[in-house]
Amino acid sequence: MPSLNRREFIGAITLPAAFAAALPLMARPAEARVRPELLDELAGTPGSPEDLATNEDFWITVQQAFTPDRSLINFNNGGVSPSPRIVQDACKRHHDQANTATGYMLWKVQAPQREVVRARVARHWGVDPEEIAFTRNSSESLQICQQGIDLERGDEVLTTTLDYPRMLTTFRQRERREGIKLVQFKIPIPCEDDDEIVRRFEQAITPRTRMILMSHIINITGQILPVKRVCDMARKHNGGIPVIVDGAHALAHFEFKIPDLACDYYGVSLHKWLHAPHGTGLLYVRRDKIKGLWPLMAAEEKQDDDIRKFEEIGTHAEAPFLGIGDALTFHQAVGGARKEARLRFLRDRWMRRLHATGKVHLHTSFDPHYSCGLGTVQIEGIETAKIVDHLWDKHRILVVGIKHDEFEGMRVTPSVYSTLEEVDRFCEIIEGIIAKGLPA
């Protein structure tokens, strides 16, 4: 098993065993055909998101911006996505610049440039630049909040049984170290009732509840949760319970502004749906909450009110963080609403086709209010891990196998560079497995 990133390791989540061994044998990606006018062409294409979702001419242009190895099919973009060529080129350019005069370029030239990127990202998602910090991933963003809020022995923290294990491990360490208590509850899989979700959160609150962690979109099922309603409800209990939102799969996946959520804290990986450089994330902290939140690395008292205290990690490359700006430019050219419509179209294409066989169990709702581009399916009567291995070993199709205490299935996440041919090939192979079983 290869080393997995934060969103892939889900208890017994699995990638095909032969994947790591095959890495040295993979073909080198072809050069992307990036034309200078590509971004203008994308941004200027007329049509509603719904119309463009099925306009293959538009999406072929998007596909040209990437450098995928088309000898395999990557349907694990929910783990980490490739960046388009313009982002790759930007990172290389910034790395090269830093190496011309390292100390000067890193700290005198590139570090101030981060502020321009901060302002652009903040403007796009509707927040104050002084409320967002750049981190390395969702885990770092969320642990800043989970570790940085003061708790006392006996205090309770609340989350579901479907939240990410590393975040649960963070709370369990505080249990061992400080004597707090982690409380978890189940939600239906899938759930098409916001009232029921809010009711279950509220029902689990006790007089000792001091913190809530919730996912914006659950990474193993694709379930979108009613974040604002839970946040509004939490403020009515125990003097206002802070809500930490795990947005690892949400930002740049579907359209929203961070203030729409009314949350106190929001952590996200930018190397998933924004296609930003690998190892980049974002932390939003509401302005009045910054002072009361301790950073992971020590900061001087004068930084108490400064969002940048959460960016302190010692000497590091600025190139990935500056590359976020190019990823945002690409995202804006494609269009957030158009991207959302396309991801949902691709998800529906494979999910509806497999659902029509009558031999699968879907853990993801078709309702666009409750899901988007991420879907999880279980093939009846066949062990998921064996299907995952077969897809990779025989067909070079990469999906993620999930084995949770409450369900199992394959998580399938195409992206904007995925082709209809790839989606249909995946469906044909699964239909063959359903009809004939796995080859002996």
Could you characterize the architecture of this molecule?
By secondary structure, this protein is an alpha/beta fold. It folds into two domains: 165 residues, Aspartate Aminotransferase, domain 1, CATH 3.90.1150.10; 239 residues, 3-Layer(aba) Sandwich (Aspartate Aminotransferase, domain 2), CATH 3.40.640. Helices cover 38% and strands 13% of the residues. The protein contains 14 helices and 13 strands. The strands form three sheets. Strands 2-8-7-6-5-3-4 form a seven-stranded mixed sheet, sandwiched between helices. Helix 5 runs antiparallel to helix 11 and helix 12 runs parallel beside helix 14. The longest helix has 23 residues. The protein is globular. The protein starts with 18 loop residues before the first helix and ends with a helix. The N terminus is likely disordered.
* Approximate strand percentage: 5-15%
Query: In the residues, how many domains can be counted?
Result: 2
In CATH terms, the superfamily of the largest domain is: Type I PLP-dependent aspartate aminotransferase-like (Major domain)
First and last CA, distance: 23 Å
* Total beta strands: 13
Q: Remind me, CATH topology of the largest domain?
A: Aspartate Aminotransferase, domain 2
Low-confidence stretches: 1-12, 19-33
Spatial strand arrangement across the major sheet: 2-8-7-6-5-3-4
Backbone shape: globular
Order of helices and strands: HHHHEHHEHEHEHEHEEEHHEEHEEEH
- State Rg: 22 Å
Please summarize the sheet with the most strands.
Answer: 7 strands, mixed
The structural class is: alpha/beta
CATH domain class name of the largest domain: Alpha Beta
Number of helices: 14
pLDDT averaged over residues: 93
Question: Roughly what percent helix?
Answer: 25-40%
The CATH architecture of the largest domain: 3-Layer(aba) Sandwich
